[in-house]
# Entry
Amino acid sequence: MMHSPEPENYWRGVILFGRNSSTYKMALGKLLLGYSYSGLDRISLDDLASDFLSLYIERTENNHPQQGVMGRKTIVEHQIDLIRHGDRSFDSAVEVVKAQALSNMVLVKFNNLFGTKISKPFYSFTPGDSEITLNANLLRLSDSKIEKNSLESEILGRWDLLEHAYERTRIAPLSVDERMEYLINAEDRKVLTPLIPMIEGYQQGRCFYCGRPLYDIHVDHVIPFSAIHHNDVWNLVLAHAECNEQKSDSIPSKLFIDRLILRNEYYISSSHPLKDEIIRKTGNSSSMRKNEIYRQYRDAYQYKGRFWRGDPSYNPEEDKEFIYWIEYYAPKI
Ligand SMILES: [Zn+2]
# Structure
């Protein structure tokens, strides 16, 4: 029995999956959300191109790379350089962005998941059209229970991660971006909060322990920090403050360890920029990773010896999001 995916599942698939060669999908996603929240149902390519360029002008102020090939820039970055040097007007840059970045590139690619066109695309567009029509699927996102802020922050989190990953390809000797290294190795556990937007979408916006929508979010070590003494990202999840406090530094039941293993495989299959870090710390194959996580779990249990079974009212077998996660993504791993 397959749980049929909701628009937000497709949306998160498009935003979070795939080897992005540039950040274009993040920019388009952010703009599409904004249009749908404003109640628009169609937008001209001229307006879209102008908004797209403006968003990148803001975004590239810090000079973070927007694509992954060393020494190369995206068409949009190139146009922004010309504007900044006074060699091109904003309006003529908009024309180039429209023709070369939007029409034949990101607008054609966005409605795809795992290399296949999704059955309910978020907008209609055929190259040559002068506007895009926002579809019911996209408009339903703005009516859904998901908070506007969480979809937006997931896009921005993924965008940050892509920039970190692209920067890494430019600084060849570093295996992990310095900022990520800092986050991962931080002694102070509070420093982990910048990881929240990067993890949230991968949990479908749900608490790892009770499955309910997240608020008052804590970054939690599934195998407790006091037993494991590291901040490796494979062991970090998001939970409600109250669930985190209930669990405290007890060892969670094996159910949660299996869920953690699945979550990590999900990261790896989505080309999450922390993929290499998880593989480096836990192993090259899914069976190696599973054994390594079980090993650390057993060691921690011998050390702590105190179990936490989770909220008794929560049955993961009836958790729609969790079932979705397993049935839809796991077969592709
Ligand atoms: Zn919870």
